[in-house]
Amino acid sequence: MSLSKIIREGIGQDSWIRRMMDEGIKLKKQYGDDKVFDLTAGNPTVPPPPEFYRELKRVIENPVPGMHRYMQSNGYPETRAAVAEQLVKDSGLKFTANDIVMTCGSAAAANVVLKTIVNPGEEVIIFVPYFVEYPGYIENHGGVVKMLPCDDDFLPRLDALESGIGPQTRALILNSPNNPTGVVYGDSFLKQLAELLRKKEAQYGTEIFLISDEPYRKIIYDGLKFPFPSRYYSRSMIITSHSKDLSLPGERIGYIAISPECPNREELVAGFTFCNRTLGFVNAPALMQRVVARLQALTTSIADYQRKRDFLCDNLSKMGYSLKKPQGTFYLFPKSPVADEIPFVMKLKDLKVLVVPGAGFGLPGYFRISYCMDDRVLEGSLDGFRKAIQKFKKGG
Questions:
Q1: What is the pLDDT of residue 21?
Q2: Predicted pLDDT at 14
Q3: Which phi-psi region, left, alpha or beta, contains residue 345 (left: φ > 0; alpha: ψ -120 to 50)?
Q4: Which residue from 287, 282, 300 is spatially nearest to 243, judged by alpha carbons?
Q5: What was the pLDDT predicted at 348?
Q6: Separation of first and last alpha carbons in the chain
Q7: Looking at residue 217, what is its pLDDT?
Q8: Alpha-carbon radius of gyration of the chain
Q9: How far apart (Å, rounded) are the C-alpha atoms in residues 339 and 88?
């Protein structure tokens, strides 16, 4: 066989998001783009802020010598300084350029961090439902995936975490605002989490790292403020990107920011820089590093996303769907009207509405809707949602 066993198994278990996107492509070819309503991917149609285009034009029209050459693997000093300056304003922590490593998006940041800190056989905890790629990232580096549950409000259960942490626990990944649920983890939860992690470190004489995945940090609604986990737990690091807050998923630009209070942070940053190179990322894209340096305080239109959220939540609730209004991100995670959501999702597909089964996020019985789409797509999906729930309420 040409493929390794791990890759063959991985392809067989390929992401439900990708599967449903592929189904959408087939349907669009068959019926036309305007007849198919694809709500699968977190691929924003909301444009980047106007300042992005102005800054991109400025950089391109004012080239400097060597602007497309290699730089330090951790990124341009001026870009890292700009990232650190904004983090200081937002978090109140004393980040510096030396705490930042620029990366090819949040996915690269996650792999760099895991490669740096995880020894083969050590456990990395994730909470169900989880971002679909986390298990693959962990297994890339010999780590063991340990899945723990959330409560009915989609908050990680601290009682399960207390019993789930053991001597082989090396890290946990926290994703807030959460994909797929839209939940924002509050100050009280983070304080309790930090106390529990310190308690377990003392119990086992180990280091436990908190990896905070924050690509939706700026996409928060209803006046809520983002509580930085780094403020509560010193052995923490941020992984993030500008894929969502600046609507730049295809540009693959993000960063790692290690807490300025983290022990041994200089050694860890050296490890991140080394792994950024040896994993094959080499460095974050030079052009995008220069562009985003002046855009750290900006984000795309949150009001637009909140309007889309409210539109879908109001309409789906009236139809009889059970859902929790998300506090952030651009996803809804409603409960399926039947316990096995796969037949329901397939019925929606027959009605030319594409969503992602909750099984793809480790939690059957739910499904994810992405609403970072044109209004036409959201509005056009309503008829399919209405017909699907009516059919299943009548017994399928």
A1: 82
A2: 64
A3: alpha
A4: 300
A5: 97
A6: 42
A7: 97
A8: 21
A9: 46
Q: Which two tokens stand for residue 301?
A: 């239109």
**Diameter of the chain measured on Cα atoms:** 68
- Torsions phi, psi for 212 (to 5 deg): -100, 110
Q: Looking at residue 148, what is its pLDDT?
A: 98
Instruction: Set out the domains of the chain in order of their start, with CATH numbers.
Output: 5-49+301-393 (3.90.1150.10), 70-292 (3.40.640.10)
Taking 50 as the pLDDT cut, the residues of the chain under it are none
Please list the alpha-helical segments (H only) found in the chain.
5-12, 16-31, 50-61, 77-91, 105-117, 134-140, 158-164, 187-204, 265-278, 286-292, 302-319, 341-350, 375-393
CB contact set of 322 (below 8 Å; sequence gap of 6+): 334, 335
Place of tokens 């086992």: 204
Of 257, 211, 269, which is closest to residue 236 (Cα–Cα)? 211
Asked if 81 and 97 touch (Cβ cutoff 8 Å), the reply is: yes
- CA angle (37, 312, 34) in 5-degree steps: 20
| pLDDT at res. 13 | 57
Write down the number of H helices and E strands in the chain.
13, 12
pLDDT (0 to 100) of residue 12: 61
Which tokens is 51 given? 């300042």
Please give the pLDDT value at position 167. Answer: 98
Kindly state the tokens that stand for 256.
């790692």
Residue 344 near residue 392 (C-beta atoms within 8 A): yes
Which pLDDT does position 47 carry in this prediction?
93
- Check residue 196 and give its pLDDT: 98
- 353 has which bridge partners? 37
Mean pLDDT of the chain: 95
- Which residue, 108, 257, 259, is CA-closest to 194? 259
Tokens at 388, concatenated:
């699907």
* CA dist., res. 149 & res. 60, Å (int): 48
Q: Could you give the C-alpha distances from 309 to 137, 159, 175, 305, in angstroms and in order?
A: 30, 32, 20, 6
Q: Quick count: other Cβ atoms within 10 Å of Cβ 200?
A: 18
Specify the pLDDT at position 258. Answer: 98
Q: Pull the structure tokens for residue 44.
A: 């924003």
